[in-house]
Amino acid sequence: MKVRHSLAAAVLASAMLIPAGVPAVAGQHQPVPQPPGLAKQDTLRWVAPQDLKVGTAVAGGGHHETQSYPDPFTYDTEYRERLAAEFNSVSPENQLKWEYVHPARDTYRFAEMDAIVEFAQANNQVVRGHTLFWHSQNPAWLEEGNFSKDELRAILKEHIQTVVGRYAGKIQQWDVANEIFNGDGTLRTTDNIWIRELGPEIIADAFRWAHEADPKAKLFFNDYGVEGINAKSNAYLELIPRLQAEGVPVDGFAIQGHLSTRYGFPGDLQQNLQRFDDLGLETAITELDVRMDVARGTAPTAAQLEKQASYYQRALEACVAVDECNSFTIWGFTDKYSWVPVFFAGEGEATVMWDDYTRKPSYHALQETLEQASPGRGNR
Ligand code: 9MR
């Protein structure tokens, strides 16, 4: 995962040179029509239990800027139709990350995120904000800025207040702090600029500032490699109640869920979610995908697809079984735009739809699991 982030930084540094225009999309404020031939009852959001949001990342920024296709969210009509039809929660894949939204010290670039929020409102979707405090995808002006401690603190506060404030009332959950622990459960004291320069106490301030800017938004920690009970998830289990005891407004713990069929399914996922639920926290699955080994030019086997489907199903079942697991998000819904093959050579096919939006067994596994969780009820 570390390699991925430094690669991403290099890729994004070059991508920043490309001016990112946002074309006006006709009907942006209007609900997007149902895809032709798709009944609204035949979608994930329709069959989801009322208290569970089913979401996806909204493709754009990041690795997309190095691909041959134009921005998926603004250019791909079928993509937009499926996005509106299938999901009742959306997460900007890159459009709220520092490098994207805050490209120069005195410049914010909100157009792309504004468009996502408008789309979500028009289509009766909630939004997950991602992310405010991270070691990756930070702009060079910040990482290489030689700021004093006071300046850095002021920069972080201003960023959080500006970004959270702009979308106050429009973002349901925020991944305030992303990936703050190493695999062994120690804090990222070297690669996270905030923790390195300002000390661990700054984590609490980030949550306080976010809460001040939008008191209704639910504030989360989010990480990968915390699906099971391990040193990293234990570190969150210890940290969050300690912060709460100090009055820090933390509402939830989110598990990303970037899985691979190379490894076994994390069978203790439900038990892990439950121990956070037992603390009175909300939980969420925020970035689920399940990659597999597929040689270039070959198709996955039926067995691989079934194995993938079972991982999607088990992850969803775990969330459904835990009371306050109220948000289940997949990290993209079509292989056409997935980050996986860009970052993992020889792996891919990680999402629930093929490039042409036809459904894979993993899609049907999600649909059936949602149906079983709330038989007979539709939920838009
Ligand atoms: O999907 C995102 C991709 O477009 C970016 O290039 C990449 C850069 O790090 O980030 C991807 O999203 C990451 C998310 O923000 C945090 N968790 C891991 C995700 C996959 O790398």
Q: What tags apply to this protein structure?
A:
TIM Barrel; about 375 residues; alpha/beta; 15 helices; binds ligand 9MR; 8-stranded parallel β-barrel; single chain
How would you portray this structure in words?
This protein is α/β, with parallel strands linked by helices. The chain has one domain (2-16, 34-377): TIM Barrel (Alpha-Beta Barrel). It is 39% helix and 15% strand. It has 15 helices and ten strands. It has helices at residues 2-15, 44-47, 72-75, 77-86, 98-101, 111-122, 140-143, 149-166, 193-198, 201-213, 231-245, 269-277, 302-321, 340-343, 361-373; strands at residues 53-58, 89-92, 126-133, 173-178, 218-223, 252-255, 258-260, 282-293, 325-330, 347-348. An eight-stranded parallel barrel has the order 1-2-3-4-5-6-8-9, surrounded by five helices. β8, α13 and β9 (325-330) form a beta-alpha-beta unit. The two termini are 36 Å apart. The structure holds ligand 9MR.
Briefly summarize what is shown.
The chain has 380 residues and is an alpha/beta fold. 39% of the residues lie in helices and 15% in strands.
- In the sheet with the most strands, the strands line up as 1-2-3-4-5-6-8-9
Helix fraction? 25-40%
Structural class: alpha/beta
Provide the CATH superfamily. Answer: Glycosidases
Q: Report the strand count.
A: 10
Shape: globular
Major sheet summary line: 8 strands, parallel, barrel
SSE arrangement:
Elements: H1 2-15, H2 44-47, E1 53-58, H3 72-75, H4 77-86, E2 89-92, H5 98-101, H6 111-122, E3 126-133, H7 140-143, H8 149-166, E4 173-178, H9 193-198, H10 201-213, E5 218-223, H11 231-245, E6 252-255, E7 258-260, H12 269-277, E8 282-293, H13 302-321, E9 325-330, H14 340-343, E10 347-348, H15 361-373
Parallel strand pairs: 1-2, 1-9, 2-3, 3-4, 4-5, 5-6, 6-8, 7-8, 8-9
Antiparallel strand pairs: 8-10
Helix pairs in contact: 8-10, 12-13, 13-15
The structure holds ligand 9MR.
Ligand 9MR is lined by residues 4-5, 8, 62-63, 93-94, 136-137, 224, 256, 287, 339.
